[in-house]
Amino acid sequence: EDQVTQSPEALRLQEGESSSLNCSYTVSGLRGLFWYRQDPGKGPEFLFTLYSAGEEKEKERLKATLTKKESFLHITAPKPEDSATYLCALSITGANSKLTFGKGITLSVRP
Amino acid sequence: GAVVSQHPSRVICKSGTSVKIECRSLDFQATTMFWYRQFPKQSLMLMATSNEGSKATYEQGVEKDKFLINHASLTLSTLTVTSAHPEDSSFYICSARDRPGYNSPLHFGNGTRLTVT
Question: What is the mean pLDDT of residues B53-78?
């Protein structure tokens, strides 16, 4: 059965304290892995797409990496405005064009 | 670019009534739109795939007669929750791709918070 698991469920950081969020998966065929940011009461906002193991993408303080079993979202020197829920989603072979989402990681960054 | 607009953002209705939610792609055309539902502290669950000019495809366990989807144009899909009950209270979010391909990202609206009293 295709599964996507995100950990930890919640993460509290001090401003400037770098860390990583994990998205692990077991799927029959991965077409792509997506990272989204979701603020409370809002829809998810697209961050990155990763297609193959070894690929990396960066945007400001965020860097996403991908292996054959998991993806990491590294946050360098986070700021309070980085506080949000981070979702990963998979596009899976045979699942048409839909995305399967993990439960998300709620990040809180204290000033 | 790639803006998806959803309306209303919040709605409160009485049990037994119907509610319509609109999803528009503002700066692109979308032959397919996706409707998700999200319960507190839970993941987004796909409800149905809306196809312009044809019937929607519903995920297993989603009642077609309760959640009516109409995709009448390339920029508008609607979700109608019929005979709503308190257990239908949730956050409903629509999404679409601005370019073809399974690996193109989905762009989401800002969601509709439905509360059924």
Answer: 93
- For the segment B48-62, the average pLDDT, to the nearest whole number, is 91
What does the H/E/C string look like for B72-117?
EECCEEEEEECCCCHHHCEEEEEEECCCCCCCCCCEECCCEEEEEC
- Residue B54: the pLDDT is 87
Q: Is A34 on the interface with B (CB under 8 A)?
A: yes
Are the Cβ atoms of A97 and B49 closer than 8 angstroms? Answer: yes
Smallest Cβ–Cβ distance between A49 and the set B44, B45, B103 belongs to B103
Q: Does B93 contact A44 at a Cβ distance shorter than 8 Å?
A: yes
Q: How far is B44 from chain A (nearest CA, A)?
A: 6
DSSP state of B39: -
* Residues of chain A where predicted confidence (pLDDT) is lower than 70: 94-96
Percent of chain B with pLDDT over 70: 100
Q: How far is CA B84 from CA B16, B91, B110, in A?
A: 5, 14, 21
Say yes or no: A31 contacts chain B, CB-CB below 8 A.
Answer: yes
